[in-house]
Design brief:
heterodimer, A: 210 residues, mainly alpha, globular, B: 244 residues, alpha+beta, five-stranded antiparallel β-sheet, two-stranded antiparallel sheet, 5 helices, 7 strands
Chain lengths: 210, 244
Amino acid sequence: MTRALGAAHQGESRCMGALDYERDHQLVRRAVRADRKAMRQIVERHQDRVYRLIYRMVGDVEVAQDLTQETFLKALQKLDGLHQGQALHRWLSQVATNLVRDLWRTRKERKEHVEFDESTLNVASPFPHPGRDAESRQAGERIQAALMELPLTYREAFLLRYVEEMSYEEIGETLDLGLSAAKVRVHRARKMLRDLLPEYAVDGGTGNEG
Amino acid sequence: MKGKYEDWDVGLRQMVAVLRRPPPERLPESFAASVTERVLAERGLAESDARSGRGVCQSWLQVLTGYLAALFQPRPVVVRPIFQLAGMVAFGGIVAAMTLWSVQDSGTGALAGDPAAAPGHAPAVEAPVDAPGHAPGDAPADAYEHVLVRFAVRVPHASQVSVAGDFNAWNARQTPLQDPEGDGVWYALVPVQPGVHQYMFVIDGETWIADPLSGQTVDDGFGQRNSLIRVEPRRDDATPDPRI
């Protein structure tokens, strides 16, 4: 079985080392048996990455914190649904993106305003950069605002590819897409962002992978 | 095959570097603990969580905090009246079913807990005992073909002993053992489905030990060994097994 797990995981997680995968796998086995320490370690190991992914998708700190909590609650309650060979970080990303989709669907049905609220970024950065902090924050706001202009389906594909560094195969599995559809979404998202942020469209001719 | 960064250009790298920064506010320090306690509370295992060595008071405080946090989370709910009605009917049905089930269960439990069926002052561990050999005079198997198995262990200074295994989802609170004689020999009759099961004894809610007199153990994957028990199906017409 160990060999089968190893083989399955080779194609699964590029951005995690084999040791991380094995460690996650051990923690999951213990957490299924309600081991408190193991559950806590799972959350601590992945909370920052999941929180960042959700925040970049929704652009709101409070909503992102709530959804991060929901993600782990849902994931830890259904750990036995994680099939062997599946990397925990990708499964968590899948749960998170599904929750964000649900939120977007609800807001659309209630015709709420779903655009990015720039005021949420006017909070002091926890990692200040003296001298260039204001400029850096402004750039961050512009890029996040542009990202929020993208339709959710393109935004999530872009983030999974470039921020989470997933392969197109992993993106396809996470978003329930085919390989070519995943490539097309990432390619179009990148093009949309370049149109929205022309100052970042330098050397833009190399990205032809769709 | 393309490398990871082959489709990246300078502008894209700059954008991604910004997007990889953490959000402007960190998660609360207690985030992981709070989430864990809520999950355990919803599973009904907050207190019985194994092997963490935490105090009960601290656990309950965290459970309470988790519930309070959940109470203050905004959750819009829209329910059609017909679904409300259906929900009430379903709820009533569930309550009725659970009541009937518990009544049936307590009937079996009375048989299992019958002092006349329990062993006397056992100087050492008597469990596991396969029901076909020992139970015919004690109690019958229940409607789900469970077999009553007597678990016993000698722990002189314990204030609470229970048995946890795959037959009760490793719940350390569900199946307490009794020591009515006060002689340190704890025992209980537990309905178990036929098959091979793993189990351990839990002393005072936190110390997990394998059955000291069980001949068969298996590695639990975490540095300890679980005891093994094989429960044979009950045979109504079977003659007593001469090996037991």
